[in-house]
Amino acid sequence: MNKIPNIQDFRTVIVANGAFPEHKIPLSFLQKAERIICCDGATENLLAYGLTPDHIVGDLDSLSEELRIRYANILHHDPDQETNDLTKAIEFCRKNNRKEITILGATGKREDHSLANISLLADYIKLVKVQLLTDYGVFVPITNSTSFESFKGQQVSIFSLTPETFFTTGNLQYPLNQRNLTSWWQGSLNEASGNSFEIKINQGKVLIFREYFQSFIF
Length: 218
Hints:
- By secondary structure, the chain is of the alpha/beta class.
- The protein is 21% helix and 29% strand.
């Protein structure tokens, strides 16, 4: 079962250059992180929050000369223009055997960047176990039928990235029965009916969004 965001299991945190988190849950992951990998453009925000990255990854075009000098020993320059800095950070984690990753700060500024970062989760699932936390909830990718821990009334959205995927759901207010979702809006704004729900798929890449548990315990 895919459980609520778990600090113990996702101790490697990537901070992307979107809006810096404000909600207590993503901030708790940041505060208790075992390793913080910072996309270069997010470095100043992390430092302003009072934390220092363990590694800074990216093409370094968003990093000031002062910070390049100060943190030269933890810089990991990747000039590849075919990938974004978040993907470079994921690849850095994979190469360093860190395969349970929480992503923070990936949304909240430019909408095109937010959509790109969210959609990339479906590619990352082939490399690592990953969750993306916003100030409202958590995105996780799935490629197989999965059950989720939930609570009655929890807001749930399903996003299909592959047109050949068919969905059957259990314990959601608006059930799907061998339904093909041809547009992202079609699986959004559903609601859990109890303490778990199930998403059954035949194949493909899917993103699930769940709002946070109000009784989340740190």
